[in-house]
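Section: Multi-chain targets

For targets with more than one molecule, the full set of components is provided together so that the structure can be written out for the assembly as a whole rather than chain by chain. Components appear in the order listed by the source. The example entry contains three components.
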Amino acid sequence: MRDFEYIAPKTVKETLDVLDEYQEDCKIIAGGQSLLNILKQGLMAPEYIIDIKNLEELNYIKFDEKDGLKIGATTTHRSVEFSDTIKEHYNVLSEMERHLATVQIRNWGTIGGNLCIADPTGDVAPPLLAMDATVIIANKDGEREVTVLDFGVDYYETVVGPNELLTEIRVPVIPSNTGIAYLKYRIVEGDAPIVGAAVAFTLNEKGACKKARIGMGGVAPIPIRAEKAEKMFEGEKITDTLIKEAAKVASEETTPIPDIVASAEYKKRVIGVYVKRAAKLALTRAEKAAN
Amino acid sequence: MKKILNVTINGTPYEIAIKPKTTLVEVLRNELNLTGTKRSCNAGGCSSCSVLVDGKVVNSCSVLALQVDGKEVTTIEGIADGAKLHPLQQAFLEHGAYQCGYCTPGMIIAGKALLDENPNPTKQEVKEAIAGNLCRCTGYVRIVDAILATAKKLQEEAK
Amino acid sequence: MSNYSVIGKPIQRIDGYEKVTGAAKFTTDIRLSGMLWGKMLRSPHPHAKILNIDTSKAKKLPGVKAVITSADTLHIKYSNWRRYPHLMDETPLAEDKVRYIGEPVAAVAAIDEDIAEEALGLIEVDYEVLPAVFDPLEAIKDGAPQIHEGPTVKNNISEARHFEFGDVDEAFKKCDRVREDTFYLHPVSHAFLEPTNSVASWDLNGRLTIWTSTQTPYFIQTLLAMVLGIKEGNIRVIKPHVGGGFGGKMELFSDQYCAARLSMLTGKPVKIELDREEVFIATRRRHPMYYTLKTGYMKDGTLVAKEAKVYTDGGAYNAMGPTSLYLSGFFQIFPYTIPNYRYDGFHIYTNKNPSSAMRGFGGPQAEFTCDSQIDMIADDLGMDPAEIRLKNGMKPGHVIPGLAKVGSCGFEECVKKAMESTKWKEKKGKLPMGRGIGMGCYGFMSGGVFNWIDSPYAYSAAYIRMNVDCTVDVYIGSAEIGQGSDTVAAQIAAEVLGVPMEDVKVIRGDTDSCPPDLGAWGSRQTLMTGNAVKMAAEEIKKQLIEVTASLMVPNVVYDFDIKDGRVFIKDRPERGIELAEVVKTAVRAREGQALFGRGIYTPHGKGMVSPAYSFGAQVAEVEVDLETGKVNMIQVTTAHDCGQVINKLGVEGQLEGAFVMGQGYALSENLITDEGKVLNPSLIDYKLMRAPDIPDNFTSLMVETHEPEGPFGAKEAGEGLTNPNAGCIANTIFDAVGVRIKDMPITPEKILKALDEKKKKEGK
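Its structure, encoded as tokens over all components, is:
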């Protein structure tokens, strides 16, 4: 690994000033669980590393009944996993974290860092997509809110500019009568998923689907939603048959690339299986919430 | 330009000048000659380099050393109480939970981290807690047994 | 049932304390004053001529102390094949050409790692890229690029092996049925956790000390002497604790040579430690093989004739390929009594990193095909595959004409025990779709009779010294690499001399003080080093008994024995003398000379392969996810015959570890290359099994026979256990979902594809 100049700002404001000064010459490190490997392999050799790992200002999990959930970007995966607030109101995130990578990685890696590295197989994005989450991106001049759906640009590339910092993840209040599930497929444990699907169903008074969201990872350059499949559920009673058909449509909305792990056809096939399984679990949870 | 790192390791405070790119495992093994923590893949893929930072198990090859400034690190050298082995170490001996020994320090650290957080884990929880730690010799069976046996022993002692 | 003090018991290993406290020093932990860091420059091309190497810029970089290329070597070809020089095809650094991506071309020693790394970038190598060939079946065609020149190499075939007995062609004619299948076995890595590494220190007396992570200290000593042009006696090889070998550390490697040479040139210690990527791309791997198997059988399930034709992907150099080639043909007929057999194997060069020994040494490949095909035969005949195995199983004393005589053999009992324990009859073919039960079997060598290294020494040797306080020092040259061989040696000495384990010290891993031993490979150390230790201990025992007899002066000639600190009359155990007193008297009686015993072991007249064979049967259960093809291991039960178990904890540990390695081999591990480039050289992208992936339940059943060739009747328990796993899993999957994958690894994608094709055929 090439050496670098090291700056550890004490506040968010200081961080934004430093980013503005160095822009493309610097790179932010939080937990570094992905970034350090990139640096070790020589894929990147920034002159300055801006260390935000110990920025307590961005280490928080807040919830209120109106604004919903706010997670600071440097909150570790493990904090999200164990948070009582999250278990109570957004349990799918705790479940997702419990199986993300390995304990060692979760203890040091951050939820913000995971989104910013933008590995298309990442676990964090699909459930956030299923909950219509947004992120806050700040720079010296202010901040903007971007949906997680619009956050990704391409493999390992996001809308965060060279002088910008992801500061917060926001998840709206989950409507009542909602069930959410995230399931992922991998061949050996501790590994990155091959594909993953998050499904959220909100039921209306009649028990039919009011809103459906399907977030998918590992099947496109960025995390995506199966918007055509989602529409199939709206207003309908969710049956096994409908789930099966929608899963097929969701699979067709994907553009996975083949790699050394699996072929594109296999990924398309398996995402369909996992959309179906996640949908069934989400439905069970939604029905339970409705009763 | 070197930076100063202040860190407590196994209860002893250290002040070391290091290049910013230095990872925690390099500080331990190269600067301080604490070679109990092993480096096997240097990419966070095998967890042989597991240590505790403020009680949490991490891959020390994937932690920028300067990030542990002001924190407490525990390595395998700090697990025993002087000459008295930690119950986990004792259990590893009794269950034959090691063969070549290269993954053993990391496994014991991960096991301790688990039992400190979850004193009564299920077999599945133990397996998930060491999912990051690769072992090529034992097949994990006796490592899981040793951790479960230690949990049981510690629970009984607590009564 | 024998009444041993320590043999057969679950004895705690003797190297435990240092391993669980992190005090155990591995070569990676060695730090010497003034130590330089070495790094290797490696070829980026799979096949190229080296036109010129310019190291001048690298040499000038401040902090660089030496840079070497082949010009700084004696250009001596080496390998373990000293008895067969035509097979010695590797030089310490590439000479006129490179033959695989990652082949060492130069080495640098500098004051720190960063400078060494930078220096590598300053070495300028002019290559002329040559056409390369990667598939062995392409490499043997006329017109394929020739990887090596030489009178014994043609069409890239460096070695062929042929053996046969009976009359295969006649036998096939008489069979009721004949089937032929071709299987593909893929490359996998040893993935030992301690990377290949060494620290070499040349002192100005002209002596070299090298600490290195190796399975064969003597090989390193003798081959370094040859390649460096210095005397063996001036080389001290120290083997600290070793973080795994599995066959991947039983040869001299370029980086060991380079550390030594750089130290000689700089007068400073030099450390070379391969990073994980280098370990994947530039160390050895298991032989990929195209394995065609033809078997003739009768309708009642009798196996009559087999013909195997194997093309192995040897990679760029021979390494231990010819042995793998031979054993893959030999173990094809284990553990069954096949009266007619013909084997033709070809070791083929390709432009990839060399394939070499890996746990099982060709056996796992052979058994995969053997076990798969037996189950196919069983399916064809509507018979229980366990019954076919029992019908054709080897028995004690079985003779393989011209090749081997089987001594003890508990195969039949292994199969029956495994069947009983797993309720085989109730489950086979009767579990719901997606659940299955299957079997794999094996027989394996307890050390090879081979001496390709051309050592004039006994294959194993031991010196033992017994001190007046009854502590025992055992000096052995065997290599503890995690398998527990030091503990086994201590147990044997402790048992013979009647002392507790705490009083036995094993001195090993230092060629200055320990006798030569061929090292850890071919699962040899329990039997061979064990026999040497036993012989040495018995020499001391004899001296002690002589002294006791003269002290006790019994009026009848009695036999004595030693146990639990006493020397006593066997038939009158209450009459005896404390061991401490006997030892002191014995020392005094010999003018104060310490009690000393020497033991050696070299197999004589034990056939062409091994003095003894282990046997076993493995039964596993799986659940296959019908929508994804993913295989979940439910349980595995193994019945293993290693003769007399020396250490129960050790054998069970080997069994469990071997299965998980085999599970990875079958289902997820794969060293993926494209045009000679390894695409997944990391422990993240190379998929090893992790704790949550292992079967929920492991059952180990010991079948104890008595092997006269082995110490206390013991046989191997290290490599044989990796032979049945892949075939067992393949058979289990077939029982679960009715599809058979012959092309390893058995990935979920392949299973799903096969299921689709099956459905199509069945018209669904």
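DSSP finds eleven helices and 14 strands in chain A.
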